[in-house]
């Protein structure tokens, strides 16, 4: 025990701190019994000098290392904080976008959810209206109580029905022109030979939550012009766009007077378009690009693809499908192919090769293009199989089927919202996309491959300056370069400058990480001039020499024009 205590004492005595001083003095300990003398003065002084000379440097080195570690930790925390702030801001923006979309969907569901039911009831309302107006007023007297009571009952029913329509946001569109020289009816017009009849039925439009206030047309006006003389002439449905009803009827009457025989009937029904042209998008899309062999029988091929709706119905039974699993499809043709099977279009649509400072837009050609939309990608795959199976044997030289998807609630793979300026109202989209005389549409398709490395590594402000919009919420930049994408499309870098031309975009992301990924661009227009202007602006061919900065983050590898004929034009190809 004494030995252990002695060893502890000798170890504890190795250092002594001289109080009253800021320096450390080393005292020589008693290390052994043989060497039991205390350290002399000279040893003490030497030890003290050594400590004085060494301690400050050692202390300084130790502090520098600590400061460096703290600085590195601070820098790391600042970077983490910045990243978290960006994620938070993006999350807020994304949440707000989702909230706005959900509110819009809820509002639309409230207004349009019973549209089909209301549309059926409108026919009942029309019949009631016809019944009440067909009763001569002079017979509604007390001398004829049964007729008077029946009339009052029908009138009350009609009034109550209109109140119900109004409660659910459905309102009458009153006719501008009354009936002339004849009796108005929603079904037929009768009269003596040589009498001119104009009959009009009231249309209906659902209320709108949008600022435009145009709403959705539930039932069109019924417009008919006829030279009476035979037993009856049917009324023709016509969906009138921005043109006034009065002007349309005046023109119809004028045409009738100039050209009609006593049995001539003129209708103002607009040509029908294919289902893919201006309908809303789905979760997935099929882009089927087909090149035919030189020896292919173009008539047989045209006959096969004109039956596209039959293939759609085979994949999706129309009696069992709804909006969630339906397929909306359309077929387009290249200029050479269409000229062989149907003749010339109203406007030429030749896609020229373009080259700018930032890249090229190659002209890839093609004979047939199928655009189909569905919420189920498996059904699009089935449809593609069905189409290719029904094409004439040995007629296809090559084809490419691209399947797209919705990315982050409607964003491009670059993170920017796609199609911000697309018209929301169906009537507006039809006005932009459809050629009035035919119901056809001129279409551009382009395949873009994104440089994902540039998108991920470039600063967000730089990307936003290239596009001309903020990435989180797609707000247009008040100050932007003349070479930004927004400025190239509007011919000015001024804030909210009007667009000289418009198209209906149906573009969607596509691809895989192991292969190519980017944007499949597709746009519909009533005239190819709308698209030509935009392409020229992108490569600087519009006169100012500036190319579109969006070509810094994506490369165009394929492109051409197509003509999607109207339904009536397409049916002619079946013969």
TrEMBL record:
GO terms for molecular function: adenyl-nucleotide exchange factor activity; heme binding; metal ion binding; peroxidase activity; protein homodimerization activity; protein-folding chaperone binding. It comes from the Eukaryota. Residues 34-55 are annotated as: Disordered. Keywords: Chaperone, Coiled coil, Iron, Metal-binding, Oxidoreductase, Peroxidase. Residues 411-567 form the Dyp-type peroxidase C-terminal domain. Its cofactor is heme b. Residues 67-105 form a coiled coil. One of its GO terms (cellular component) is cytosol. Residues 37-49 have a biased composition (Basic and acidic residues). InterPro entries: Dimeric_a/b-barrel (IPR011008), Dyp_perox_C (IPR048328), Dyp_peroxidase (IPR006314), GrpE (IPR000740), GrpE_CC (IPR013805). GO terms for biological process: protein folding. Belongs to the GrpE family. PANTHER family: DEFERROCHELATASE/PEROXIDASE, DYP-TYPE PEROXIDASE FAMILY PROTEIN. This is Dyp-type peroxidase C-terminal domain-containing protein.
């Amino acid at each position: 025990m004494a030995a252990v205590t002695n060893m502890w004492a000798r170890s504890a005595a190795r250092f002594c701190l001289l109080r009253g001083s800021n320096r450390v003095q080393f005292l020589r300990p008693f290390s052994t019994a043989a060497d039991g003398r205390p350290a002399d003065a000279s040893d003490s002084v030497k030890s003290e000098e050594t400590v004085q000379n060494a301690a400050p440097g050692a202390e300084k080195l130790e502090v520098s290392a600590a400061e460096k570690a703290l600085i590195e930790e601070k820098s790391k925390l600042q970077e983490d904080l910045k990243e978290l702030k960006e994620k938070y801001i993006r999350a807020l923006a994304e949440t707000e976008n989702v909230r706005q979309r959900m509110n819009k969907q809820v509002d639309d569901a409230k207004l349009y959810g019973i549209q089909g039911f209301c549309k059926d009831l409108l026919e009942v309302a029309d019949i009631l209206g016809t019944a009440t107006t067909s009763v001569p007023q002079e017979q509604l007297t007390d001398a004829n109580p049964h007729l008077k009571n029946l009339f009052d009952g029908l009138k009350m029913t009609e009034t109550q029905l209109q109140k119900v329509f109004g409660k659910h946001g459905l309102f009458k569109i009153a006719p501008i022109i009354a009936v002339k020289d004849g009796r108005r009816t929603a079904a037929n017009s009768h009269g003596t030979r040589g009498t001119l009849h104009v009959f009009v039925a009231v249309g209906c439009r659902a209320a709108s939550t949008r600022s435009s206030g145009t709403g959705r047309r539930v039932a069109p006006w019924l417009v008919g012009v006829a030279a009476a003389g035979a037993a009856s002439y049917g009324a023709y449905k016509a969906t009138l766009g921005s043109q006034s009803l009065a002007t349309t009827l005046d023109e119809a009457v004028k045409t009738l007077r100039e050209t009609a025989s006593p049995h001539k009937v003129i209708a103002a029904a607009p040509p029908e378009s294919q289902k893919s042209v201006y309908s809303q998008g789905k979760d997935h899309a099929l882009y089927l690009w087909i090149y035919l062999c030189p020896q292919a029988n173009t008539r047989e091929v045209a006959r096969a693809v004109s039956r596209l709706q039959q293939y759609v119905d085979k994949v999706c039974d129309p009696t069992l499908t709804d909006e969630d699993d339906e397929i909306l499809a359309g077929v387009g043709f290249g200029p050479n192919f269409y000229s062989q099977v149907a003749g010339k279009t109203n406007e030429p649509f030749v896609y020229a090769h373009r080259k700018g400072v930032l890249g090229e837009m190659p002209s890839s050609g093609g004979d047939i293009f199928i655009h189909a939309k569905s919420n189920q990608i498996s059904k699009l795959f089935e449809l593609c199989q069905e189409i290719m199976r029904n094409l004439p044997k040995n007629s296809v030289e090559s084809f490419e089927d691209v399947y797209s998807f919705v990315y982050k609630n409607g964003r491009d793979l670059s993170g920017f919202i796609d199609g911000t300026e697309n018209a929301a109202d169906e009537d507006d989209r039809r006005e932009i996309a459809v050629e009035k005389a035919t119901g056809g549409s001129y279409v551009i398709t382009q395949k873009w491959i994104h440089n994902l490395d540039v998108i991920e590594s470039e600063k967000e402000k730089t990307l936003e300056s290239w596009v001309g919009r903020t990435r989180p919420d797609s707000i247009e930049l008040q100050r932007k370069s003349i070479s930004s994408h927004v400025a190239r499309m509007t011919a000015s870098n001024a804030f909210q400058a009007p667009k000289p031309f418009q198209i209906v975009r149906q573009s969607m992301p596509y691809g895989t990480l192991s292969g190519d990924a980017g944007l499949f661009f597709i746009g519909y227009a009533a005239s190819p001039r709308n698209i030509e202007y935009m392409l020229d602006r992108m490569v600087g061919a519009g006169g100012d020499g500036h190319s579109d900065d969006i070509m810094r983050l994506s490369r165009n590898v394929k492109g051409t024009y197509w003509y999607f004929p109207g339904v009536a034009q397409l049916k002619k190809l079946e013969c």
